[in-house]
Design a protein that fits this description.
Layout lengths: L6 E7 L4 H13 L5 E7 L2 H8 L7 H12 L6 H16 L7 H10 L4 H11 L2 H16 L7 E6 L2 E6 L4 H7 L9 H10 L11 H5 L3
Parallel strand pairs: 1-2
Antiparallel strand pairs: 1-3, 3-4
Helix pairs in contact: 2-7, 3-6, 3-7, 5-6
């Protein structure tokens, strides 16, 4: 089957959402497995909640900071990915603050960003242009029908296909013409490599493969 052109997959997320973290990590693992271009879209979960009538958490400074990081990216989402993961680690793994600008600066410095660049990002995060960008991205998520995060938008044949939550990857894979191999596809590949070569042509279920782990 021809791989064809790479499909754009957008991930709308907020680091205050632990389920967004799960979706983020799984999609990152599949960027080298599926024929996709993953675009990270930091947005404000509180704005989505407000737009859909739900209660709203207050982490505006955090998402403005990530929006500033995104605005300074020169192709790709490398730094945005790293800083998003660090903020998820702070709030959900180490029980550290991510709401204060000092905490956000600390996260940037920990990842090796120069102090001058971190200061520039903090300043940019308070600018009107970044405020407008975050608002526009959040409104775009609401227009897609978001009522929470993560929201995954797959662009297939000129139209958006919407998936909510971190447990819809099998459906998403079918939609974009790919195979879902569990949350750790590289681990599955390693398990397949353990199977004797003379049995590779046989049909194996995930249960068969699990026995090799």
């Amino acid at each position: 089957m021809s791989r064809g052109s790479r499909k754009l997959v957008e991930l709308f997320y907020d680091v205050v959402s632990p389920y967004s973290w799960l979706g983020f990590e799984v999609l990152r693992r599949y960027t080298d497995v599926w024929n996709i271009n993953l675009k990270l879209r930091p947005a404000f979960l509180g704005g989505v909640y407000k737009g859909s009538g739900n209660r709203s958490p207050d982490n505006v400074p955090t998402m403005r900071f990530l929006t500033a990081v995104a605005e300074r990216e020169l192709g790709g989402d490398c730094r945005l990915e790293q800083i998003s993961r660090e903020l998820w680690m702070r709030i959900w793994s180490r029980d550290q603050d991510i709401s204060q600008l000092a905490s956000l600066s600390e996260a940037g410095l920990k990842l090796g960003l120069p102090g001058s660049e971190v200061e520039e990002l903090v300043k940019l995060a308070t600018s009107q242009s970044v405020k407008d960008k975050l608002k526009a991205t959040t409104e775009e998520a609401v227009q897609y029908g978001a009522f929470g995060f993560p929201l995954i938008v797959c662009h297939v044949n000129g139209r958006p296909e919407i998936f909510f939550g971190s447990d819809r990857f099998e459906l998403m894979a079918h939609c974009i013409g790919e195979k879902w191999m569990g949350p750790q596809p590289n681990k599955l590949f390693r398990c397949f490599a353990k199977i004797p070569s003379h049995r590779h042509n046989q049909t194996f279920t995930y249960r068969n493969l699990a026995m090799t782990m």
